[in-house]
Inverse folding.
């Protein structure tokens, strides 16, 4: 199973937007996908409950009385949407279960300041230092040609963390979320720019090539 943790200590950073659209991408590629919401707000779970029948299926946690939540049997891709303020043992436990970590950050001073200690903590994790888990940042609601984008890159250069994608501020994400859709469930002509923006993220994660799927 290939697993991705989407994490940021600040609420409103775009974790659920990124998580739901990645889950939608892999589902549309024919993968058996689980979207695991470990956020108290349960935003991704609410999205999943609105997902129309007939679309590429996405599962939630498999929950049995007295047992820990688990991915459904046969899951190939697990996307984990994490809570704000994630740290300590809970963060350690999640990192041990994943292959990639995505940190969505908006290029505002407040968002960058809020992410400083979290990024430092991630880089100190043994799995990250030993390159067993790979870490990348996704810039949210920003045009890469702007001054704020350059300031974000300067900020991240202190940590030697790559910006692997730039997601623009688009109403397509808002409309999709309200209907339980991803941009990949909407007409391609209406979401072409959004798909192009996410293409570099998908490429960094490994796309949908068979060689990238493995049991852990």
């Amino acid at each position: 199973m290939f697993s991705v943790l989407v994490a940021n200590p600040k609420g409103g950073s775009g974790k659920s937007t990124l998580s739901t659209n990645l889950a939608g991408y892999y589902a549309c590629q024919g993968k058996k996908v689980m979207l695991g919401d470990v956020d108290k707000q349960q935003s991704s779970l609410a999205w999943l409950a609105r997902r129309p029948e007939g679309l590429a299926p996405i599962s939630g946690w498999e929950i049995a009385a007295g047992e820990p939540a688990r991915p459904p049997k046969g899951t190939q891709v697990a996307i984990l949407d994490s809570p704000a303020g994630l740290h300590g043992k809970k963060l350690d436990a999640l990192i041990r279960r994943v292959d990639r970590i995505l940190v969505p950050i908006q290029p505002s001073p407040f968002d960058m300041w809020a992410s400083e200690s979290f990024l430092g903590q991630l880089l100190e994790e043994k799995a990250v230092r030993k390159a067993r888990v790979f870490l990348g940042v996704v810039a949210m609601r920003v045009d890469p040609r702007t001054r704020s984008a350059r300031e974000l890159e300067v900020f991240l250069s202190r940590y030697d963390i790559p910006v692997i994608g730039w997601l623009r501020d688009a109403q397509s994400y808002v409309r999709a979320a309200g209907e339980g859709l991803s941009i990949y469930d909407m007409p391609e002509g209406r979401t072409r720019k959004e798909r192009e923006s996410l293409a570099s993220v998908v490429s960094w994660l490994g796309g949908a090539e068979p060689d990238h799927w493995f049991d852990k």
In short: The two ends are 6 Å apart (CA to CA). Strands lie at 2-6, 33-37, 58-59, 77-81, 100-105, 134-140, 163-167.
